[in-house]
């Protein structure tokens, strides 16, 4: 099933509400637009009226070069993969918002970059979505988890050992999938429950 344009509009609206970016933020823009994470880096800041500060064309900033660029441009918000964040050794005192995704974030990196006055989010989770489906406010004394579904989203974790929870791709087991979806719906909740390939193990 194709993802409709309305899905990305919905994502931008709810992410702008939840993430905590501000009109006064200066956001580093360093990803290629071929990476779906760039939607988060570019459009969510624009939804709140923040300023995007792109990296120099043709360059690849890492480590001390990236640190110096962020410091010189007064960057207050950064969205990046943990691998990129790990290349920065020195603190960025003006950075009040940090969001990581694209890969699992190690606990030691959270401990190194966490500060009481810095909003630090992990939005790495289920991949078969419109960019992001879950979010978590990280803390060095708590384990890294998927967190919570974004508003208007539903996350379903299935037990592959339970009969009927592993949808087959050949279509012959559709009636079992339909029964599974029906069991996962909760009274009083919008009819959004579903079984997604990628949230189970064949």
Write down the secondary-structure element order. HEHEHEHEHEEEH
Distance N to C terminus: 20 Å
User: What percent of residues adopt helix (DSSP H or I)?
Assistant: 25-40%
Radius of gyration: 19 Å
Backbone shape = globular
What structural class do you assign from the helix and strand content? alpha/beta
What's the mean pLDDT score?
A: 80
How many helix segments? 6
List the topology elements.
Blueprint: H1 5-19, E1 26-29, H2 37-48, E2 51-54, H3 63-72, E3 77-80, H4 82-85, E4 97-100, H5 107-113, E5 119-122, E6 134-137, E7 148-149, H6 174-184
Parallel strand pairs: 1-2, 3-4, 4-5
Antiparallel strand pairs: 5-6, 6-7
Helix pairs in contact: 1-2
């Amino acid at each position: 099933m194709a993802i409709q344009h309305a899905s990305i509009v919905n994502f931008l609206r709810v992410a702008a509400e939840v993430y905590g970016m501000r009109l006064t933020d200066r956001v580093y823009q360093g990803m290629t637009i071929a990476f779906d994470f760039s939607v988060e880096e570019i459009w969510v800041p624009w939804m709140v009226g923040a300023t995007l500060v792109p990296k120099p064309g043709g360059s690849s900033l890492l480590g001390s070069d990236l640190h110096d660029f962020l410091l010189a441009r007064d960057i207050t918000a950064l969205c990046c993969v943990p691998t990129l964040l790990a290349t920065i050794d020195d603190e960025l005192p003006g950075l009040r918002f940090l969001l990581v995704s694209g890969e699992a974030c190690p606990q030691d990196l959270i401990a190194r970059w966490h500060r009481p006055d810095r909003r630090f989010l992990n939005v790495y989770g289920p991949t078969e979505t419109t960019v992001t489906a879950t979010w978590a406010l990280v803390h060095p004394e708590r384990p890294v988890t998927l967190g919570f579904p974004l508003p208007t989203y539903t996350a379903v974790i299935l037990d592959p050992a339970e009969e009927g929870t592993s949808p087959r791709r050949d279509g012959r087991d559709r009636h079992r999938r339909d029964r599974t979806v029906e069991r996962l719906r909760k009274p009083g909740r919008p009819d959004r429950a579903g079984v997604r390939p990628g949230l189970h193990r064949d």
